[in-house]
Amino acid sequence: MATSITEEKRRELPSQATLDEVGEINIKDKDGKEVPLKSLYTGKPANERQLIIFVRHFFCGSCEQYIEALAKDLPPAKLSAVDTALTIIGSGEPILIEGYAKRTGSPYPVYTDNSVQIYKKLGMVSTLKGSMGGPKYTHKGFFKNTIDSMWNSVMSGHPLSSGPPAQNGGELLFQNGELKWCSRMRNPTDHTEIDELKEVLGIKE
């Protein structure tokens, strides 16, 4: 598994063969019900786009702040106005999905790839090395973020079920069953900034 990625590779679209393969891999909802990944972006209206956000483990405080920022700046109504649906995918056990959605105030569907096969095959990076400075979507300091993550882990009753701690995620945008754009995280706080997502989606304010 990759532990680093160049700027060029970060935005490189996977091959069609890879996309066909990952499309058949099952993801799970909060009840453990399995559906293939491709069900999120195939058989949809021709004008609809599907933005899929792969987050880190279910106790990652930085990713939780990212979902909170998305819910505030890109709520479902705003996304619907530009024919876009958003789905979140994590890497932990299904039993943690309900609590994750509640903590983040997520108005979007949440699934998990607890096999982490989709992450790996799409070339998403596994590293705990941080970046210099925090992204715009975070509002907590490192210490506060770490303490909150540990607290949520303990209080969940399932502290070892959140997913691989070093596995990072990324963002993918589909339309008509085709991947149009993607971005892979280079480090644990490298989700695509909200302003850039708006540009990608053509949202002008």
From TrEMBL:
What the entry lists under Pfam families is as follows:
AhpC-TSA_2
Recorded hits in CDD domains, A to Z, give: PRX_like2 (cd02970)
**Gene3D superfamilies linked:** Glutaredoxin (3.40.30.10)
Protein name as annotated: Thioredoxin domain-containing protein
Q: Which domain of life is it from?
A: Eukaryota
Q: Which InterPro entries match?
A: PXL2A/B/C, Thioredoxin-like_sf
Q: Which organism is it from?
A: Cercospora berteroae
